[in-house]
Amino acid sequence: MSAIVKIKDLHKSFGTNKVLNGVSLDVQKGQMVAIIGRSGSGKSTLLRCLNGLEKVDAGDIKVCGHDIHHPDKLNLRELRKQVGIVFQSYNLFPHLTVERNITLALTTIKKMSVEEARKIAHKVLQLVGLENKKDAYPEQLSGGQAQRVAIARSLAMAPELMLFDEVTSALDPELTAEVLKVMEDLAREGMTMVLVTHEMAFARKLADVLVFMHQGQVWEIGPPDELFSNPKTAELQKFVSSDL
Amino acid sequence: MNSFSFLHVEYLLQAAVWTVVLSLVAFVFGGVAGFVIALWRVSPNRLLRNIASGYIQVVQGIPLLVILFVSYFGLAIAGFKLTPLVAAGISFAIYCAAFLGEIWRGCIQAVPRTQWEASECLGFNRFEQLTKVILPQAIKIATPPTVGFMVQIVKNTSLASVIGFVDLSRAGQIINNSTFQPFTVFGCVALIYFCLCFPLSALSKHFERKLNVSHR
């Protein structure tokens, strides 16, 4: 297995607020890495650094061979072809149909023909079980459906790495289940995934590596079962017990 | 003293054509410049942002009447003798550019930041983000205030009479001076203004409905 993400001693501050305080983490190809932790522990910032949405202050960070810390050498467009991200608030384009939401980047960035792009849209919509919604507008979808379209939109770009930023936090349990099912299918197919999540049961069941973040650092890391049943630090112990 | 007749109505309608011409000049030239100013206002380049916001502040801080005086009388003293239509056209375009620039800047910024982020994450560059994702959404937001401003411009063209431009209001004044029938004359003027402005408002509603496809 080769590392698709290599982070070494990553630092990031917003003003005087130190958000990432020396994070080191490797993600291997095909792995699912779940990041958990309290609000403000730096999970989402870490994820956003991975696709260049946030500028890094110090440290080494390589994603899919791209050096994120050196923007002059960094080809953001290429990076973003390889790294997909899905947000908590879906962020679909409200003025476009579901199908056009998916094909827009394919025809614009990848310069595909409309026909080709439509075929891919059909395929990814099938994957998330929403091919019958291709002509709907985002506002006509439920939260769960919108999130599945957002996942499909990212998948259409055929990324090597998928990032999920608390994608189920805005959904009720029933809708959460349908989104998690799509992510589970992706994991089975060997997609490399890094997710920030509050779905402990999901993380425990499917993640290969669980990362507990605290105060901008990787506080504990290891196989989920081990971390959940045998937390070494008081912080994780408290975090895990508060979830039960 | 002659009384208000069909000939006077014809004269008013001719003047109304000049009101429309001036409004169109103001809107087309002011619109193009206003669009550039709106884009500069949201540009990542600080220099462009400052130039645009400086322009807006200066123009918004000066009455339109003064801009008219400067461009007609002021430039004439400096050796540039402009016709009333050209001077009024330039003044109104300068004025429209500042206000439309600021209105449209607000509309662009009213599109949620997450839409920039989502399109950025898909690999769009700034131009593609603007043209494919942000502006199509901003246009929908911009339609009502833009039309509202256009209606204001049509009515404000009456100010151009101070530099000798014979628009609808000025024509009404001229006719009233000879007929002394202010109620009839200005009632007729008001009706023509209404006939110019009402279709604009109706058009705005039509566009809003048409652009509102995602909210059916």
Chart the SSEs and their pairings.
The complex is a heterodimer of chains A (244) and B (216).
Chain A: E1 3-14, E2 17-28, E3 32-37, H1 43-50, E4 58-63, E5 66-67, H2 76-82, E6 83-86, H3 98-108, H4 114-127, H5 143-156, E7 161-165, H6 173-188, E8 192-196, H7 200-206, E9 209-214, E10 217-222, H8 224-229, H9 234-243
Chain B: H1 6-41, H2 46-60, H3 64-77, H4 84-110, H5 113-121, H6 126-156, H7 168-179, H8 182-211
Helix pairs in contact in B: 1-2, 1-4, 1-7, 1-8, 2-4, 3-4, 4-6, 5-6, 6-8, 7-8
Task: Give a written overview of the molecule.
- The complex is a heterodimer of chains A (244) and B (216).
- Chain A contains 9 helices and 10 strands.
- Chain A has 244 residues and is of the alpha/beta class.
- In chain A, the strands form 2 sheets. Chain A has a 6-stranded mixed beta sheet with strand order 6-7-8-3-9-10, sandwiched between helices.
- The mean pLDDT of chain A is 91.
- Chain B has 216 residues and is an all-alpha fold.
- Chains A and B meet through helix 2 and helix 3 of A and helix 5 and helix 6 of B.
Q: Which fold name corresponds to the CATH topology of chain B?
A: MetI-like fold
> How many β-strand runs of chain B?
0
* Count of extended strands of chain A: 10
**Helix content estimate of chain B:** over 70%
N-to-C terminal Cα separation of chain A, in Å?
A: 34 Å
Shape of chain A: globular
Q: H/E series of chain B, N to C?
A: HHHHHHHH
Q: Overall mean pLDDT score of chain A?
A: 91
Low-confidence stretches of chain A: none
Mind summarizing the main beta sheet of chain B?
none
CATH superfamily (homologous) name of chain A: P-loop containing nucleotide triphosphate hydrolases
User: Can you give the helix content of chain A as a percent range?
Assistant: 25-40%
The CATH class of chain A: Alpha Beta
* Cα-based radius of gyration of chain A, to the nearest Å: 18 Å
